[in-house]
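Late entry, written up from scratch paper. The run itself happened at the end of the previous shift, but nothing got recorded in the book at the time, so transcribing now.
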Amino acid sequence: MKKIVKCTLMVLLAAAMALPTFAGGGSQGGSGGSVGRKQKVTAAIMTFESLDPFKASGHVIIQIGKALYNPLFCEYGGEVKGVMAKEWKWADDFNLDVTIYDYIHDSANNPITADDVVFSYQTWANSTGGAMFGTKLKGIAKTGNYSVRLTFTEKSYPTFLDNIGAFIVSKKAYEAARNGFNEQPVSTGAYKVTSVKSGVTVTMEKYDTYWQKDMSLLPEPYKNRVDVVQYDVINESSQIQTALELGNIQCGEVTAPIADDFAGSKSITVIRVDQKYPSVLMFNMLSGPFKDNLALRQAVCYAIDVPALARASTYGKGRQSYTFGHDSQFGYVKKWDTEDYYSQNLDRARQLLTQAGYRSGQLKLRYLCNTGEKPSLEAQIIQADLKKIGIDMEINLIDNTAYIMSRTAESGTWDLCYNGLVPKGYWISGIKMQLDGTLYSSGNMMGFRDDKLQSLLEAALYNQNDANNDALQQCIKQNAYGYGLEVDYIYYGVHPGIKTMVFSCDGEIAPQAFVLGPEYNVYAK
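Output as recorded:
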């Protein structure tokens, strides 16, 4: 008896790592369904262009990739768990020795050995998807037929987490593919592609020869409970609502008003989880007006009414952030919630603007963000608030792929830039992503280097505790090295037969691992 699930994902996904269970319970080991039918879950993503793990955008890798490809490890529930890795041991602070299972093969029956692990990591580290995180991976070397050594340039658990998620594929299969794995990947995961239309839909089905037969050895997001997983590209919230109501999808991210519409519904259950991507405002400090101008950065912070922005952009459900990140993350210090964090003060903002060397109406800023209802609305609110102190702001909305390529200061395309963090459960991971001065030729994502900031960052990375994290936070806040805006919740409408939603360590749903109840009677359309 097989299983199939349709889910709809949009860009903002939950940070939860728990397994929310709906009314009726449901075991972790499997589920029922109509006898003789495959059980199918359909999920929607905002967009995808490629299924290649070394070419696709981050969201495609995080969402679709976990069904198609396996990594050495994954972090789940605050612990590192092996997927392909059978054993691992730190030789010292910088070298990790890993042994993989000796019976791994891909869907074409190519054996996976240490040579494939080395190839995959080297390819990933030089790819768009791995460039941001792979810089801390100094090297990887084969130490045996089924063993490798990973060498890092710094000692820190969050850095290790950034580098464990590379998907492993067969070097032979990848190099033989004419266009990489854009549309017809050879899987190392439990599913293989049965149909794909780039930018529209992809369907994956569980196959019988998947290498790992003992599902108890797999972390939750990699368990293959559902027979067929389909992702549909659905961009509009109203279209997601309709698809849920018609049964075309069984799980979809919805807005707060749509979640309210579903209240009391017998055909749709709503679950709320913490927002995955807290909003942060970045300053370009490589060039332009914010370079070496603390007063101007502080003027912008004091001008924005963040509580009002949070309410307006989240249908009244969001709240102000007091840092770069979410209060549910490991390492978040609770006292930050009661400290002043540039609460709106227009008089102070105007004074700082003058101190920064600008008269009212003299300065025009360029603001960059990706397209979407929420980023666009936030941009308009910030634009209106800055106008109150005499700063004009031009908004540039671009598609997500172009945005990802342009959101570093080195692109030279913005003065202010919206960014959504991908912190992998740790507060400091979001800080590191934007402010680590070793990531880019110009320093960090905002285009500067600060030795004191770097020292505090490395101290907190190497030794996670409240004192180190607070010292880092105070330095960022006092120097206005970016400005945390708001945190929100994510809402999912789901088929009531889905008893347990499973989330990966990245906060993305993993529909292949959903637990389905015996009443989950889903038809394949």
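The chain is about 25% helix and 25% strand.
(Scratch paper discarded after transcription.)
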